[in-house]
Amino acid sequence: MSRTRRRSRKGEGSVARPEPIRSEAPGDKTRSDGRLYAHGVGDRFLASRVILCIILAVAAVAVYAASLSNGFVLDDVSQVVANHLAHSLANIRYFFEGGTFPTGGRERLGGIYYRPLMSTSFALVYGLFGSAPFYFHLYQLAIHVVNGVLVFLLLDAWLARVVPRGSPAPTLARFLPFALALVFVVHPVNVEAVAYVSAVHEVQCVMFGLAALMVLESSRGARHDPWWRRLVVALLLLLALLSKETGAVVVVITLLYLTCLDRTRLRAFAPPIVAIVGVYAFLRLWVAGIPIVTPHNASSLIQASLGERLLSAPKILFSYLSGFIFPKDLTVSQHWLVNSPTLQEFWLPLAVVLAVAGLLGYILFRRRPGRGDESTAVFVFFLGWVAVSLGLLVHIVPLDFTVADRWMYLPMIGMLGLLGCVLKMYLPEALWKRPAVLGTVAILIVAGLGARAVVRTFDWKDALTLYSRDIPRAEDSFDLQVNLASELIKAGRLAEAKPHLLRGYELAPDSPYVLHDMGVMHYMEKDVATAERFFLRAIAKDGNYIVHADYLTILLEQKRLQEAKDFLERQALPRFPYNVEFRNLHARLTATLGGTPR
What we know:
By secondary structure, this protein is mostly helical. The protein has helices spanning about 40-45, 50-65, 75-80, 90-95, 115-130, 135-160, 175-185, 190-195, 200-220, 225-245, 245-260, 265-285, 300-305, 305-325, 345-365, 375-390, 410-425, 430, 435-460, 465-470, 480-490, 495-505, 510-525, 530-540, 545-555, 560-575, 580-595; strands spanning about 30, 35.
């Protein structure tokens, strides 16, 4: 590099100090955010983002290809197949006026969730392609691919601000965001969020949240934010909220981003963000009439006190942490509860959680950032991301399940960001200069996670396969016991179904779904009197329209026509006034017995 002479202020004959020799490769140019446009390896990396994004997409398709042929399971049947309103976009207003489940003749969609964009996506896919599960799975996989790309681009931008101690960023470290995004794409804990059609709200919520962060990050440093940019960010966050209640966490993460990494713009974006939260509250509380907290009343955690729920918190956090590091035992519908502070159930998980928290605190307070070093700010941002998203899952406010794999979809991004910060700040520079070693380790990790994810996708092949494989790891889940019994009954294997159904009844004796299935079992065993008692108990617990129909079946078979007519008038029709079958049956009974038809 040439050195020039310049006239010194102190004297004409003085020789100017030579320009510093740059450590970058020839032709490097430095961006304002510290990243490099180089004609060497760094430039080729930055210029090949499209190729890396394609690799992410290929990896996702390779892992989830088998899931495209899977069927509908769990809530898919009720929320998609049996939900006739979700078969057409012409019914979109009903999605904003109620829940997500068909009610068999009530005025609105029912259930405890307010997720209008989930039902909208079902109607979109159903309207375009029909009821084939393949297209629902394909839609969900496409969103997962988009999320993987957004995670890569955002991590690349954020981790670029993390400065390794004592040296410039090694060239190989620039591939770290891609490696972390690849882990996110293939991680087996995310299988439930991607392969379970009724979990589409999870990937949609994260997609809209990441898109809002992408808009903010891509315009970082702007002196002025036009109204349309603020509107776009606010609308994306509103779409996240309308996808799933976790959108509230996404809103907090967005405000955390502005506070930690772009504070000068917080005042500009905070008002529209607060406004969309108000819009969401209006739609949920006033239009749909769904309370903010409406948990599943059959869950053991719902019936537990706050102290009992907090007793389970260390094991819950340990379950998520261990699933992130070593995802061996994966299962759905977990309803366990820690009842006493034993060594294995409480103290050991608490020790691990405190050790991890202590390590993160040590890293946070030990770091002494230099001038222009944003490493601490980025670390605090990811730490806040993890704390907020995991803090929601420790059941201070009770949720439907004790632990659910799909709930890790959002926290995992923050955890990967924390991991990236730690690696970039503390991995020895000598190790960064050994690409063969790091590459081999990365390939082994991604291959192992991908293989486990592929195996897990086969578990989701159909309902009977899923329940049969998961129940050995969750024998105390009344959901799994009853669902497995129901599938066995459909397959004509009543003798195998009975022990599971009895176990489900033992675990949740007041659940209307369990009571209904108990009635079905006794009906198939020709014990009609016992079946009738269980049906009536389920109806008293606000059972759905199906149990009402099954009870009417018994009355009609026994020629108890007047009882059937009275039941329709006093219970079935008041609860389900728009049920066509109930109205037609009442008309026929009225014609036979006399009276006024409805």
